[in-house]
Design goal:
The relative contact order is 0.14. The chain is elongated, with a radius of gyration of 22 Å. Helix 1 packs antiparallel against helix 3, helix 13 runs parallel beside helix 15 and helix 14 packs antiparallel against helix 15. Strands 1-2-7-4 form a four-stranded antiparallel beta sheet, with helices on both faces. It contains 15 helices and eight strands.
Amino acid sequence: MTLSDRVKDRALSLGFHLVGIAPADPLEGAHDRFVEWLSRGYQAGMGYMDRHAEVRRDVGHPGILSGAKSVVVCAMGYGRRTDPRALGARVASYARGRDYHNVLPPRLRKLARFLRDESPGCRTRVFVDTAPLLEKAWAMRAGIGWIGKNACLLHPKLGSRFVLGEVVTDVRLEADSPHEERCGSCRACLDACPTGAFPEPFVLDARRCLAYWTIEHHGPIPEDLREPMGDRLFGCDDCQDVCPFDRKAPDLGAPDFATHARWVKRTPADLLALSDYDFAALANGSPMARPGRSGMLRNAAIVLGNTRDRVHLPVLRGAVTDADPVIRDAANWAIERIEKDPKPAIAGRPRSS
């Protein structure tokens, strides 16, 4: 077996579902498209994407690994595994269990150690969203998949429900061949987007993306996007749910990504009653910690408003007194929405006042 074969075998033994190797030559075309994407403002409020834009072109940059020759790209599937509404509202399937930033790095460090043992004196660096890398472009070059019309990385058998990590090294490994794009004339993902976040195929405008607004954005969500949120508490999987490759993919979700017991009986109304301390304890080690209490309770209030159910008015009125103005704003919007257009009462259930 070649060193490349041994590295791949070791990656698979560590629990990764896909592994590929790319030569570390600069990403000229992909980088040009990224810079054009930035120039259109499609990164929304994610200012960190503008920083170190040139570094993203070349993993041999001193800020990554000077002298890099290969990028080992590993993918771990998170699957669906549970009803998307198991938490009383829709949560992106990658986020229901442990944070992948905690799951992948220990495995990647073991892989990097294996490579150093096999090639003494070599240098390695491990990344999981921890450096300015164009991860999907490297994954495509490494043969993991192609970038679909919804801007997600797609594998012909496993769909797009996996997360990525990389080992960059100065060892020249045998590279894999890239996948050809296979979306064809399909536009299911583009048509399924509830907010029209794709100005054209393969291009995502985060300014219209509910995943951006419910996860990355700090502050009020624009009012024209609140009703389209529906019951999306955290993220949005719509463009993946309808993809033919995702629909036929097996569920390879690792146990780490199964819905954690702490969330199973939680509802958006429960979240609105949490203090800063209680929320931090609940969200510790979960991707749902990212928006913070302010963002998650903001989302919860909007979700309750979209139910138009008067039963939620008491907890929303309690949130109106919250110290956080973002939460207060969302709660007031939800109350106004319910009172203006309440859902018809269910026979036998008293109305909440």
